[in-house]
Amino acid sequence: xxxxxxxxxxxxxxxxxxxxxxxxxxxxxxxxxxxxxxxxxxxxxxxxxxxxxxxxxxxxxxxxxxxxxxxxxxxxxxxxxxxxxxxxxxxxxxxxxxxxxxxxxxxxxxxxxxxxxxxxxxxxxxxxxxxxxxxxxxxxxxxxxxxxxxxxxxxxxxxxxxxxxxxxxxxxxxxxxxxxxxxxxxxxxxxxxxxxxxxxxxxxxxxxxxxxxxxxxxxxxxxxxxxxxxxxxxxxxxxxxxxxxxxxxxxxxxxxxxxxxxxxxxxxxxxxxxxxxxxxxxxxxxxxxxxxxxxxxxxxxxxxxxxxxxxxxxxxxxxxxxxxxxxxxxxxxxxxxx
Length: 338
Ligand code: 13P
Hints:
Elements: H1 3-13, E1 19-22, H2 27-35, H3 43-54, E2 63-68, H4 70-73, H5 84-90, E3 94-98, E4 103-105, E5 113-115, H6 121-130, E6 135-142, H7 151-170, E7 174-181, H8 189-209, E8 218-219, H9 236-250, E9 257-260, H10 267-279, E10 287-292, H11 294-304, H12 311-328
Parallel strand pairs: 1-2, 1-10, 2-3, 3-6, 6-7, 7-8, 8-9, 9-10
Antiparallel strand pairs: 4-5
Helix pairs in contact: 7-8, 8-9, 9-10, 10-11, 10-12, 11-12
The structure holds 1,3-dihydroxyacetonephosphate (13P).
């Protein structure tokens, strides 16, 4: 295990003003995305779509790393057959890989999930390293309802995140630790705050128990929001304040970057929330940036609409969101940029 390399790569991922492109949709999820633009989810179309994003000129000015899916890291550019991971690393963008096998129902705990994929992970990580991956992602899913989350699901998911992180670091791969609390439901922002605090406490306990090197991880959390179905939606400033306060209490200063998921927020809100956090005049020992999937891709997907003649428009739409979020990661975004 090379701690220096892990720390260097984690810091590179969290370079000020840059973020991650989460392009690691599994075959099932990317089909759902392509369905929205009436485009068949064939191997070629998935490759074309990812090629459109990865070859957008200048994306490396805003993007420090790309999370890929197993199929994608084995694919190459359309025009000159350059492996995607080589294309990215030649641009100075770190290639990453989703290694979890998805969130499955947690036995005996209705409505809760546990992420699978630890068996055989050591061998898979070694192969992904040889394919160019320098960081990985594992997403745990926590739900909020009248009865959830239970201690059981928080504890089981924290344990799995720690086992995964330890295996990644052994393989010189930076783990993205992603405990996603879904914001579906009618709950208040206060409930989100309490649950996020409890989950992060549990995750950092588990990481500490397994001696995970905190300088060599990236945290990918949800923002602290009102439940999407709550009548009372917190303002951008309230979200920024609650989210940063929660992290001040739970995330050690040794962690180089907190890079948020967008979790179904609109493109603009995801950018505004990030910007407001970076504008807050308070203690923030970590970089606060983005690791967005939908909030970076939806506009590009729609602009492309599966048609070759729209590839340039798709690239432009992606670069625009990347640029706005890069500004937000420095607290320099304004709505005039739209
Ligand atoms: P969203 O930004 O669309 O939530 O996706 C990020 C991600 O990688 C979820 O695991």
